[in-house]
Amino acid sequence: MPKLLSAPPFRHVHDREIFHLAVPTFFALVSEPLFLLTDSAVVGTLGTQALGGLGVASQVLMTLANLCIFLAYGTTAAVARKFGAGDMPGGIRNGVDGLWLALIIGLAVVVVGQAAAPWLVQVLGASPDVAPYALTYLRISLLSTPALLIIMAGTGVLRGLHNAKTPLVVSVASNLANIALAVTFVLGLGWGIAGSAWATVIAQTAGAAVYITVVVRAARRHDVALAPDVAGLKASAAAGVALFTRTLSLRVVLVVTTAVAARLGDHEIAAHQVAFQIWSLLVFAMDAIAIAGQAIIGRYLGAGDRTGTRAATRRMVEWGVLIGVLFGALVLLIRPWAPLPFTSDPQVHALILSTLILVAVLQPVSGVVMVLDGILMGAGDQRYLAWASLWTMLVFLPLAALVLWTTPEGAGTGLFRLWLAFGVWICARGLTLGFRARGSAWLVTGATRA
User: Fold this and answer.
1) In a designed cystine with 349, which of 253, 279, 339, 355 is the match (CB 3.0 to 4.6 A)?
2) 355, 395 in Cβ contact below 8 A?
3) Which of 60, 58, 49 is CA-nearest to residue 133?
4) Residue 144 DSSP symbol
5) Cα–Cα distance for residue pair 363/325, rounded to 1 Å
6) pLDDT, tens digit, for every residue of 318-327?
7) pLDDT tens for residues 232-284?
């Protein structure tokens, strides 16, 4: 691994480039959970059952979005390479193919999702009172899936071209429009939970229209055909399969962690929810640098600049460590008071306090993992990422099972041991990504990754 912390903060040649992309990306990422909170508040005025229905449907939609994030990540890497190589028409061609792939997948999800919606609601355990609300919201919101996936691919195109400001503007504008429409439809017109779902459909469709307009204009400017290219679609799909595998492996780890915590006891799952949300929030903030890394590394490799790639990688890893150390210190600082807004149960309170120690310790490692994941993604090293994610998942699963099987009922130590297993998984990811970054197999230069 390159030597860390070799330059003072804010005094490195790559800092301006990193934060030019990372800062707008951070605010674009933050706008989404803020919108979800507001949407929940609006639907909450309809009653407990409606809010529960929103929660069930949102889990399905969020899982779908997470599994399809490869449309953004894969497009960013491909476009950035062409951008770095000076092949703007080729980069726009990748972007057009990404939009077509998003549309095809989105339409397929709408058809399958409408048929599977009742089963999905049932699998998530919705009660008879909650299920009708969940089914209504899910079936209407699924209509926005093509638009959602086009937004992901369009975001990848612009980030690949080192334009992070337009995705920020579109994200904030779409979320504000969604909130305004939800308030109008739900509270003003009395459409109930369906009003909130239709607000999502309209807002996301408008956001997708913006990205389509931007890409179409760029295609015409560079004389790029708008018709789908079969070879381009196959290349995008091939990269997407590897990234899908990577993401699915990560989701399995997170779901199993929650499932084990739930089986350890009610106090454990309550404490785990708080600790996990704090960990997720901090990792979510680090993701801005990882996404910047996708565009920066893709551009340097496209330009054939291995030295610049190494230097940018080193600096982003430094920032991952620095931010992780700061976040770890912040968690330890707020730890004595962190449980207070969430619980008055002394047992849950104690479990949160012990778990947050591990959350704090894991922050620097999490920072490096997030950054290296983004860097290798930007290099187009998706196949390695897929295999690494699978192997680290296989490391974690026996440890999680061991925690469940060997923790006596009421022992009170199970959650801490589960988070130790979770920490082993994070460290395993750090090792697999670190060894890869230290080598040179991922440093493939040129407009395409052969």
Assistant:
1) 339
2) no
3) 49
4) G
5) 6
6) 999 999 999 9
7) 788 888 778 888 899 899 989 988 888 888 888 878 888 887 888 788 888 87
